[in-house]
TrEMBL record:
Keywords: Leucine-rich repeat, Repeat. This is LRC43 protein. The gene is Lrrc43. It comes from Rhodinocichla rosea. PANTHER family: LEUCINE-RICH REPEAT-CONTAINING PROTEIN 51, NISCHARIN RELATED. SUPFAM superfamilies: Outer arm dynein light chain 1.
């Protein structure tokens, strides 16, 4: 599927919501509950189930029993099981687009999704959207539900945030953009409180961000930011990288998955006021500990001084790939 909506439809088919023991089939007593409850029943009498019908309790047991042929695999999400149970109790939710109202968390991983389409707006209760390991290069904010609190886009091809920041979800608390193609310094301007007033966690790891000073000046406006990941970017190679961030963002609690203790904050106190220490270069020292597969010079017979024997010279080329 090329879009999120198409991937979700495929997901629904995989869950078998229209098939036994879910859905609106003749096997489900729930489909007639409303009609039957409207008819007065004599006291002490219970209506017998027509042949082939099962009570919701029996159908739920078929879904929950791990040995049942209709049970989901153990690695399925809790939401998948919840959806199946809900449509057993209220199968009328499968009519039209009412099923979208049940979804608060949507995870579509490694499904070849390329487009975040406007079909997502049908998920009016959606709070968590996980689209990791797909082929998404741009995200249009107009296609995102305003209820979103978590947006995870790691391992995609996102290289520009202009469309995402046009009108981003106002309640977003986590934004995951690790392992994408964000290049500095053109993208740093998108990480301010003007776009993300409630952001608590930001993952920018393993992109191509280079402007540490520019990025910090933007991040410092995010008053709720507590968790930040920047490892894997070129700017993380700057010698004073961690100390400068720790001192510049006093409300930060975790940097690159490492907790910031008070002792560390005290150690780097005052570093934020010395931007001249931030050098836009990094030095990498490579030491060769051992080389295998080369001839041992001691195996060659030493030539006497003045000997006319041939002289053999060896030269080697060592290549580093980073």
């Amino acid at each position: 599927p090329g879009s999120v909506s198409a991937a979700f439809q495929e997901y629904l088919q995989h869950l078998g919501l229209q098939d036994f023991p879910c859905g609106l089939g003749s096997w489900n007593k729930s489909r007639c509950n409303a009609r039957r409850s409207s008819r007065a029943q004599p006291a002490g009498l219970e209506e017998a189930l027509p042949p082939g019908e099962e009570t919701p309790e029996v159908l739920l047991e078929l879904l929950r029993d791990q040995h049942s042929p209709w049970a989901l695999p153990p690695n399925c999400s809790p939401q998948a099981q919840c959806l199946r149970e809900v449509v057993v109790l209220a199968p009328e939710l499968l009519r039209g687009s009412r099923v979208f109202q049940l979804v608060k968390s949507l995870r579509i991983l490694d499904k070849g999704v390329e487009e975040v389409d406007e079909g997502l707006l049908q998920f009016q209760q959606l709070e968590e959207l996980i689209l990791s390991a797909n082929h998404i290069s741009r995200v249009t904010s107009a296609h995102l539900p305003r209820t979103l609190k978590v947006l995870e886009l790691c391992y995609n091809d996102v290289g520009d945030l202009q469309d995402l920041c046009a009108q981003p979800p106002p309640e977003l608390q986590h934004l995951g953009l690790g392992y994408n193609q964000l290049r500095g310094p053109s993208q740093e301007k998108h990480f301010t409180v003007d776009f993300w007033p409630n952001l608590v966690s930001l993952d920018l790891s393993f992109n191509i961000l280079t402007d540490l000073l520019g990025l910090v000046s933007q991040l410092s406006t995010l008053q709720n930011l507590r968790i930040l990941l920047l490892q894997g970017n070129p700017l993380s190679l700057i010698p004073t990288y961690r100390g400068f961030l720790v001192d510049s963002l006093p409300k930060l609690s975790i940097l690159d998955d490492i907790y910031i203790w008070p002792e560390e904050r005290q150690q780097f106190q005052g570093l934020a006021g010395q931007p001249e220490l931030i050098r836009s270069e990094a030095r990498l020292v490579v030491s060769i500990g051992e080389m295998k597969g080369l001839p041992n010079l001691e195996d060659f017979q030493q030539l006497e001084v003045g000997s006319e024997g041939p002289v053999i010279a060896y030269s080697y080329c060592v290549t580093y790939q980073f």
